[in-house]
Design brief:
Mean pLDDT of chain A: 96
CATH class of chain B: Alpha Beta
Shape of chain A: globular
Shape of chain B: globular
Strand content of chain B: 5-15%
Order of helices and strands of chain A: EEHHEHEHEHEHHEHEHHEHEHEEHEHHEH
Structural class of chain B: alpha/beta
Distance between the termini of chain B: 34 Å
Number of strands of chain A: 14
Mean pLDDT of chain B: 95
Number of strands of chain B: 9
CATH class of the largest domain in chain A: Alpha Beta
Low-confidence stretches of chain B: none
Oligomer: heterodimer
Number of domains of chain A: 2
Radius of gyration of chain A: 19 Å
Strand content of chain A: 15-25%
Helix content of chain B: 40-55%
Distance between the termini of chain A: 45 Å
Structural class of chain A: alpha/beta
CATH topology of chain B: TIM Barrel
Largest sheet of chain B: 9 strands, parallel
Radius of gyration of chain B: 17 Å
CATH topology of the largest domain in chain A: Rossmann fold
Chain lengths: 393, 263
């Protein structure tokens, strides 16, 4: 297994963690094609997490926009309400096979933390979640959910007290206690083998989309659209279409208050190559290589980097990345709720927003698949506040 | 004798660390002068980074204070050039994170290090597997890229030692930087592993050493000790008035590691 995607990827981590990561790599290589591991994971994904998720034809949205047919991949219907469970179950099961008894993880919006806490509860493992102090405040409900599931949540005060600091703190925790602990990284980032392993666990999304769209339409879609923070739901939705050059792959980044403002998390639009959190990839950073504080209304996309495979897909022109502002995402959040009766996660609303722009420019016999990576219950209070209604959870 | 060879030529080496520009460049210069006068063998200068993954809270906060001053890599090079012009010739190393070097341009960074008179570079987020990207450029500028070994390194130690340049930085225990009471019981074996493949390369122990007693104990196992957090804590407490306090701390540690007194 290659440790890089073109020039991106690698394993830039302290020596203290190297054997842990190499051991993980070895275990993943051993188990990934192991029939027993595959069938155990498949069982959990189907019977516990409720896969396969539906590919829903959004008739109202299609009619309203008057262009391409729109299908929604309903990852929001998974157990725990987001795609994160696909990866959390995969890594937790692998960690269990490796004899680990304790899971640690970072979380931004809280979805990955909830998914990891869920997998830990299911597999009777200890669980500790690191979450930026700011995010524990804007996603208080998810903090309580994690605690209900038996996890301990540590608010992180270092740096900007958001997702990137939670990642750094979880790495620090891992260097303190390695032998019984696995770090369940939540996105396609970090040192090798995480970007590859997490992508493989999320690739079930595109495997299902392909099968479902062929069954419903007898052809491949013209575009697949997904939101991108670190990029795990996007790579999951793209992966089995990478070889199908006719399918446009479009990642929607969080532009926050705009790519020309300081309040943005649009890595591809504003970043450049760097080395951070174990990988060489594209990062938002200043001229001195200091990682930039980023901003988005969406805690899940509020990350200054992007997974190395996305950086590679962009560099070879296979995938496109577009910035979507807070305003556009909130409009799309409300639009999908009204039009289809589906309240998407504010992260996923970034992808919906681009579909709203793109569909009218395409013909009626073309097809767009939008990955609804999560459900929006967690965001409703924040969106109400954005609209000036003071609702607290 | 090259700078890096001088580090270990006068008995047990003492390698103090500070984060540059904590609290400001002028105070950093004062501290470096004081440490050099007291006989520090090598001074490790940390260039602040926004997200120092291998650091505990004490050095994380020092990085934040340094960044608040707006310090850049160029400021660090200029500071060192001016100290060299004063005649301060203590061997110097840079400790920072890969992105600080990479974003400056690795070739340009190492070239500036050479001009400023540094002899070593420590990048805690660059393990053996990624070192070639930096070590070849470093070597071409006469700078040693220092290899780290940790209590979890096990069989990797021989491989790391075989390729090591300058000296080996032996991480005393699991976790991030910061003062601690207990050290890995493996240190002796780790150093034996190094010696079995590279009897010629010095080993210095760092992470968690905070006082005469721990410094003496670690120095007795190795060729020298590295102290960071304990010094940075003094600087955090005394700010601009810290140089004299750091001076007396350095004096005590050097006396302890080079004396025959056992604690």
């Amino acid at each position: 297994m290659s440790v890089r995607f073109g020039e991106y990827g690698g394993m830039y981590i302290p020596e203290t963690l190297m054997n842990a990561v190499l051991e993980l790599n070895e275990a993943y290589e051993r188990f990934k094609d192991d029939p027993e591991f595959r069938s155990e994971l498949q069982y959990l994904l189907n019977e516990y997490a409720s896969r396969p998720s539906r590919l829903y034809y959004a008739a109202n949205m299609t009619r309203d926009l008057g262009g391409a047919k729109i299908y929604l991949k309903r990852e929001d219907l998974n157990h725990t309400g987001a795609h994160k469970i696909n990866n959390a179950l995969g890594q937790a099961l692998l960690a269990k096979k490796m004899g680990k008894t304790r899971l640690i993880a970072e979380t931004g919006a809280g979805q990955h933390g909830v998914a990891t806490a869920t997998a830990a509860a299911l597999l009777s493992m200890e669980c500790e979640i690191f979450m930026g102090r700011l995010d524990t405040e804007r996603q208080a409900l998810n903090v309580y959910r994690m605690e209900l599931l038996g996890a301990k949540v540590h608010p992180v005060d270092s740096g900007t007290a958001t997702l990137k600091d939670a990642v750094s703190e979880t790495f620090r925790e891992w260097t303190k206690r390695i032998s019984d602990t696995h770090y369940v990284i939540g996105s396609v980032m970090g040192p090798h083998p995480f970007p590859t392993m997490v992508r493989d666990f999320q690739a079930v999304i595109s495997a299902e989309i392909k099968e479902q769209i062929l069954e419903k339409e007898g052809r491949l879609p013209d575009a697949v659209i997904a939101c991108v923070g670190g990029g795990s739901n996007a790579i999951g939705a793209f992966y089995h279409f990478i070889e199908d050059e006719s399918v446009r792959l479009i990642g929607c980044e969080a532009a926050g208050r705009g790519v020309d403002s300081c309040d943005t998390a649009a890595t591809m639009a504003t970043g450049r190559v760097g080395i951070f959190h174990g990988m060489k990839s594209i990062f938002c950073q200043d001229e001195h290589g200091q990682i930039a504080p980023v901003y988005s209304i969406s805690a899940g996309l509020d990350y200054p980097g992007i997974g190395p495979e996305h950086a590679y897909l962009a560099s070879v022109g296979r995938a496109e990345y577009v910035p979507i502002t807070d305003d556009e995402a909130v409009n799309a959040f409300e639009y999908l709720s009204r039009t289809e009766g589906i309240i998407p996660a504010i992260e996923s609303a970034h992808a919906v927003s681009y579909a709203i722009k793109l569909a009218p420019k395409m013909s009626r016999d073309q097809i767009i698949v939008v990955n609804i990576s999560g459900r929006g219950d967690k965001d409703t209070a924040a969106i109400a506040r954005y609209r000036g209604r003071n609702i607290y959870e | 004798m090259s700078d890096i060879k001088r580090v270990f030529s006068k008995g047990k080496a003492f390698i103090p660390f500070i984060t540059v520009a904590d609290p400001d460049i002028e105070t950093s210069k004062e501290i470096i002068r004081a440490m050099a006068e007291e006989g520090a063998s090598l001074i490790e200068l940390g260039i602040p980074f926004s997200d120092p993954m291998a650091e505990g809270p004490v050095i994380q906060e020092a990085n934040q204070r340094g960044l608040m001053t707006g310090v850049s890599s160029d400021d660090v090079f200029e500071m060192v050039q001016s100290l060299r012009a004063e005649g301060i010739d203590v061997p110097l190393a840079i400790m920072t994170y890969a992105n600080v070097v990479f974003s400056y341009g690795t070739e340009a960074f190492l070239s500036r290090m050479e001009k400023a008179g540094f002899c070593a570079l420590i990048l805690p987020d660059v393990p053996y597997e990624e070192k070639d990207e930096f070590s070849f450029v470093a070597e071409s500028h006469g700078i040693a890229l220092i290899s780290l070994i940790a209590p979890t390194s096990d069989e990797r130690i021989r491989m790391i030692a075989a390729d090591a340049t300058g000296f080996i930085y032996c991480v005393s225990s699991l976790g991030v930087t910061g003062v601690r009471k207990s050290f890995s019981s493996n240190i002796g074996r780790m150093i034996d592993s190094v010696r079995s493949v590279r009897p010629d390369i010095p080993v210095a122990i760092g992470f968690g050493i905070s006082d005469e007693e721990s410094a003496k104990a670690m120095a007795s196992l190795s060729d020298g000790v590295i102290i960071g957090s304990a010094i940075v804590r003094i600087i955090a407490e005394y700010g601009k008035d810290s140089p004299d306090h750091v001076r007396s701390f350095v004096r005590r540690i050097i006396k302890a590691i080079r004396s025959e007194i056992y604690f």
